Amino acid sequence: MTSLELGIIGNGSIAGLIDDQGAYQWMCLPRFDGQPVFNELLGGLGEFRCELVGLKSSHQEYIRNTAVLKTTLTTHDDCEVDIIDFCPRFTAKGRTFRPMSFVRRIIPRCGNARIVLKITPSEGWTNKPMSTERGTSHIRFRSEENSFRMTTDAPISYVMTQTAFTLDRPINIICTPDESLSDAPEQLARDWEERTVDYWQEWSRRLAVPFDYQDAVIRAAITLKLCVFEETGGIVAALTTSIPEHEGSQRNWDYRFCWIRDAYFTVTALNRLSSVSTLEYYLRYLRNVAAHTDGGHIQPVYGVGLEAQLVEDIIEELPGYRGHKPVRRGNQASEHVQHDVYGQVILGAAQAFFDHRLRAPAGEQDFRDLEKIGERAFEMHDKPDAGIWEYRTIASVHTSSALMCWAACDRLSKIADHLGHAERGEHWAKRARIIREKIEKEAWSEKKQAYAGAFGGDDLDASVLLMIEVGFVDGSDERFRKTVDAIDRELRVGNAVYRYRHADDFGKPETAFTACTFWHIDALAMTGRREEAKELFEFVLANRTKLGLLSEDMVPETGELWGNFPQTYSMVGIINSATRLSRSWASVC
Asked: Residue 366 contacts by C-beta under 8 Å, 6 or more apart in sequence?
C-alpha cells in the first residue's frame, strides 16, 4: 500500500520522492510545481523503479548528513543491491551547480542479482505515457509540456522492453534536459555523487545545532533546504499535492506553492541554525512581492516564480493517494484575503536589517517598501478575513491575523530605530500599541478564560499560541498561561494538538495538525513546563517516518501520518522545539 515512508532528493531546482524499495513515487518537472512525470503516489502510471527479482527485504537511509539516498535491496538467496539516488548540487566554476537533473546508481554488493529497470514517465496530469525515442545510449522522453533524456550504461534494449538481466557491474542512469553528456555515465555519476555528498556534509557541518536531538535537527534542516526554489527564493509549503488530511476527508490541497506565512517560519528556523543563505534567497523573493503589490493587497500564496494566478481545478485522470479523491492542481487560497500575510512579510525580512553576515543586507529602500506594507497591516488589523486556516466560507476578525498585524508594526518600529529614524519608530510603536489594546480587549474570552480564535468568540484556536513566538507576550503572562491550559484541555488529544475542534467548511477535523503540536510544545517550554513539553516532543519524534520526516497531520491515537509531505511547518517545529528543549553545549562539554 502507498504510504508516506518516502525519501526526498533534490537540489533547489527539482525534487523527487522515493519509496523504501527504490521506486520514484513523485517528481515534477521542470520545477516543484510543474507536471508530475512520476506520479504513482497519486495512483498514476508514471514510474521509475529498479525491481530486484526475488526481493525479500529492503532498507533505506541517507548517506550521513546529506540529501543522497541509499536503498538496499536483498533477495531470498542473499543477493544484495544498493540504489543511490540524488540530484547533483555542488559548486563548479564559481557558481552553484543545481541542474534539472537526477541520478540513479545501481551497485551490486553480493551474489548474482537480476533486476528489471522500469522507466515510463507520464505526461503529467493526463496520466498518459510520454513518447519515447531510442538512442545509442539514451532514451528521450517527450510530451507537450516536458522532455528529458535518460543516458545510461545499462543495456538500452533491456530497459526498453523491461527485461530482467543480471547485474554484474554498477549501472548508472543520468536524467537531464534533452542534451548529451560531456562524459561517460559512470564517470559523471561517480563524480557528481562525490561532489554532492561533499556539498551537503559541508553545509550540515556549518549548522549551529543544539546539543540534543542533533540528527533530527540536521535532517529537518536539509529537508527545509530542499523545499527552497533557489532561482527565485520562493519556498514551497510541501512538495506534494492532494495527500488528504485524513481518510476520505476531501481536504486534499496542492501545497507546491510559496505561502508567505510558511516561508517565514522556514526562514526563521534555518536562521536559528545560522544558515542565513535561505534568508538571502527569500529576501529577494519578498522584494519582488513588495514591488508587485506596492502597498496594496498581498496574496497569502504565490507560485515559486511569483505567479499570482494559481487557479484550482480537479484532475479526474488520477485516482488519488490510496484512492482518495479529489486530486487538485492549483490552490484557491491565492484568491483569499488573509491579513496575517502583511506581518509575515515584515517578520520574514526583519532580520536582514540587523544581520551583518548578509552580503546584501536590507536598507533604506527596503524599509520604505515595508512601511507601505505596514500601513496596509494597520488598516486591515481589525477587518474580517479567511484566517490562518484559510476558511472558504467563514470570515471573522481572526486573532492570529490581528497578532501578525501587530508584529508588522512592532518590527517596523524596531527597524526604524535601528536605522536612526526615531520619529518613524514612535509612529509604528504607537500603531502597535493600538493593535495590542484591541487584541487584549476583543480576543479574550471570559467564558473560556483564554484568547479565542476570533474577536468576540469563544472557540479555541491553536494559532493564538504564536503570541509567545512573535513576542506579544512572555512566559510569565497570566492570560497566556491560562490560554495554554485551555488549549491543553480542549485541543489536545493524547500527545497531539488540533488546530481547532469546531466544524469548518468540511466538518470537524479528524487529525491533529503537527505544527500546532509543536507550537504547544514551545508554549509549554516557555511557560516553565519543560518536562511536559519534552514528553510531547519525543512522541512526535517517535512518529516520524523511518528517515526522520513529517507530513502535515497525525492521527493522535496511532501516530499515523496524513497530509502533504514533507510539510515545512512540521519540519520547522522539529528545529524550534529541539533548540528550546536541548541542553546547552556549555552545560555538557
From this structure: 287, 290, 349, 352, 353
Phi-psi region of 80 (alpha: psi -120 to 50; beta: other; left: phi over 0): beta
Is the distance from CB of 322 to CB of 370 less than 8 angstroms? no
Span 351-371, pLDDT tens digits: 999 999 998 899 999 999 999
The string of pLDDT tens digits covering residues 190-246 is 999 999 999 999 999 999 999 999 999 999 999 999 999 999 999 999 999 999 999
- Closest by CA to 256, choosing from 270, 235, 286, is 235
Helix residue ranges, H only, 505-562: 514-526, 530-542
CB atoms within 10 A of CB 153: 17
DSSP state of 56: E
Contacts of 258 (CB under 8 A, 6+ apart): 229, 234, 235, 236, 237, 285, 301, 302, 303, 304
* H helix intervals, 206-241: 214-226
Q: Helix (H) and strand (E) counts for the chain?
A: 15, 30
| DSSP 8-state code for residue 325 | P
Cα separation, 309 vs 80, in Å, equals: 49
Q: Give 115's strand partners.
A: 52, 165
Work out the pLDDT band at 94, boundaries 50, 70, 90.
Answer: confident
CA 397/CA 218 separation, integer angstroms: 38
3-state SS, residue 498: coil
Q: How crowded is residue 149: how many other Cβ atoms within 10 Å of its Cβ?
A: 20
Higher pLDDT, 251 or 507: 251
Query: How far apart are alpha carbons 218 and 6 in whole angstroms?
Result: 17
pTM of the model: 0.97
- Cα(25)–Cα(116) distance, integer angstroms: 17
DSSP secondary structure of 412-434:
HHHHHHHTT-HHHHHHHHHHHHH
How many Å apart are CA 180 and CA 195, to the nearest integer? 21
Q: How far is CA 297 from the centre of its chain?
A: 25
In 10 A of CB 339, how many CB atoms? Answer: 29
DSSP annotation string for 157-194 = HHHHHT--EE--S-EEEEEESSS--SS-HHHHHHHHHH
Query: Which set of grid coordinates corresponds to residue 499?
Result: 488546530
Report the 10 Å Cβ neighbour count for 208.
12
Q: Name the CA dihedral angle for 155, 157, 163, 168, rounded to a multiple of 10 degrees.
A: -10
At what angle are helices 260-272 and 277-293 packed, to 10 degrees? 150
| Amino acid identity for residue 539 in this structure | F
What pLDDT sits at residue 180? 81
Mean pLDDT computed over 553-576: 97
Instruction: Give the mean pLDDT of 5-24.
Output: 98
Tens digit of pLDDT for each residue in 100-122?
999 999 999 999 999 999 999 99
- For the beta sheet containing 15-19, the strands, ordered from the edge strand earlier in sequence to the opposite edge, are 6-10, 15-19, 24-29, 35-38
Q: Residue 301 CA to chain centroid, in angstroms? A: 14
